[in-house]
Amino acid sequence: MIRKLISRVLGHKDSATNDQPAILGVAQHGLERDHISRASQRTVQILQENGYQAYIVGGAVRDLLAGLKPKDFDVATDATPEQVRSCFRRSRIIGRRFQIVHVGMGNETIEVTTFRGHHGEQGNARAHIDDQGRVLRDNVFGSQAEDAARRDFTVNALYYDPTAETIVDYHHGVADLQQKTLRMIGDPRTRYREDPVRMLRAVRLAAKLGLSIDPEARRPIREMSELIENVPPSRLLDEMLKLLTSGHAVRCLAQLREEGLHHGLLPLLDVIFDQPLGERFVTLALETTDRRVREGRHISPGFLFATLLWHEVLSKWQQFEANGEPSIPALFRAMDEVVDVQAEKLAITRRIVGDIKEIWALQPRFAQRGGKRAYGVLQHPRFRAAYDFLLLRVESGELEPEVGEWWTAFLHASDDERAAMLLPPSAGATRKRRRRRRSAAADTQNGGDE
Ligand code: ATP
Ligand code: MG
Q: Which of 59, 161, 346, 421 is the most exposed place for a label (fewest CB within 10 A)?
């Protein structure tokens, strides 16, 4: 309502391509130039000196206005990629589906993007579209107004000019941000059909920025969620990783569930939510991840996926064991089965798969606290990740606290103390699921795996 009123007062139209932007000064937007990276300011300035338009765009402007620290500062310009390249010595064109220029400035790399135009109707300006309406290639250049119209949400279509300290706002993005609304530019159904990943982006950005998704953009998500199946797995992996490492993973996943985006969308999410026993473990893992992200610490995708899928592995492992399979081979078969299903849909890379399996494979070895074996685990290159994983299992109530306490003490002990801590070899198997003698051979093989 208020937005419509403001639009009317300011004389804005509500059409998808709005040619009459509002130009907001500092008093209206409140963004401080000092918060913009020097390198990106300099990039804009050089482009402007060469006679081009240039702005800081997208996520950075949005995040700063929302009081968050941006991940990176992207620049948009009316110069073509070739023209941009000729303005900067350290620059190169990258990408095919969507060409951009990487400009090296100091020790930063700034992404410079040429304004994109409409895809569709206009003769040779057609973008490549598949039979579900998904845009495959997008190198049609256009005006700033067109560029704004093809961005997804109004809060993402803001252009900051650090020289003039103004924000060019075609779709009332600043007002939407102030009113805590995530609003789609244009018709949400059409926009989701063009790119179903926008449904995931809606959820992620709303969670990250503390916005509510405008009902018009929210309503179609439930019925259109199956279009996600049409998205290449590598893009889904990118988006999932963004979501999980956003620092708001707990909130994102809760919202995905609320929007009905978890069922049949990613097997990963089905797994997480359909296993009540695993929920505590996953929530703990995601809370830890969110904390780490906010502290600016490194997040390993392998560790993340290992936690998300662990209870699926556990239940298969127990099932195989119950059918009489020896423990360690049963674990390895469970690991393979779980990873295969996920890897296909999410294009989890071989390296990540390797990391996931290493963390899992080390878990039964924590039960071995006698003789040389305990030292072997301690010296394993992936010990730290596997140990953190063990602590999560303890904290979630899956294992007795005593196992975690022993390894924590062992990790911090001196050589002499360690020697005194070792249990007699026969006391190694303390888990409920007692290891069988005949699995020892497989276990040796397990150590040499990877
Ligand atoms: P973050 O960087 O926090 O993950 P972002 O919104 O900056 O979020 P990017 O992938 O960096 O995401 O995209 C930069 C900008 O490009 C966005 O702000 C938006 O304007 C535009 N954009 C990105 N993805 C899409 C999309 N799927 N459809 C339309 N516009 C998009
Ligand atoms: Mg960004």
A: 421
